Amino acid sequence: MNIQEFICKYQEAFGKNTPLPIAFGYHHKAAEEVKKIPRCMIGAIRKVCNGKPLTLSADNVLCGGGSLYTAFAPMPDRVPVFVSEVEHYKQNQEQVKAYINRLDIRLTKKPYLNFIRIDQLESLEEMEGILFFATPDVLSGLYSWAFYDNNDNDAVCTRFASGCCSIVTFTTKENAAGGRRCFIGMLDPSARPLVPKNELTFTIPMCRFKEMLNTMEQSALFQKAYSIVRKRINGEIQKEAE
User: Fold this and answer.
1) Side-chain half-sphere CA neighbours of 9 within 13 A
2) Rounded to an integer, what distance in angstroms lies between the CA atom of residue 17 and that of residue 213?
3) Fewest CB atoms within 10 Å of the CB: 27, 38, 155, 224?
4) HSE of 32 in the Cβ direction (CA atoms, 13 Å)?
5) Residue 115 CB: number of other CB atoms within 10 A?
6) What residues contact 72, with CB distance under 8 A and at least 6 apart?
7) Residue 39 has what pLDDT?
8) 3-state class of 18 per DSSP?
């Protein structure tokens, strides 16, 4: 299935009003001019759904956590203090340091991290993963699709993470390992105000996405149960469940 065929199937499954997914990956060439972005990159990434690519680099990722989780820079000394004593997401600095050590983030050798809406791509080569901004109803379909040919308990994972870590770090590491796990993210309270209140993220490593393209049409996305959810996504069911 090529990109255009996927887009047709995606819109058939979820409706044309559902945002198209975003492909992201490290490159030696910027997809867009490297521009100043707000301190948190999440809002800028969400805007890629509107069609304009985004290029991140060490020059415009100014958040200490963001530069770490995008693999542009080592962990700043202030991150463990901030996460534990300011945000109170971890009980102490040692927990933060242990968590980051387990992530084993290796700095990228490529200067740019490009985010491009999938309809603007000719090829998925050199991309690390596919990012969906998904409502619960869309998430239900993606979740079902991911479990269709993967019987592992962790075929879909939700882990402690910042918004950018849940999108970039988990997905790129899984892709590098040739893994099959997908990730639900954007549960980070600090980043949630930057996305619509009814959206989470769902990321698929590129190695896994290429597998899943072969099962899309056979999965629950095109069966009776999900067709009812699809009608609600498209406004064909007016009365909400109470």
Assistant:
1) 20
2) 21
3) 224
4) 20
5) 26
6) 56, 57, 58, 61, 107, 108, 113
7) 81
8) coil
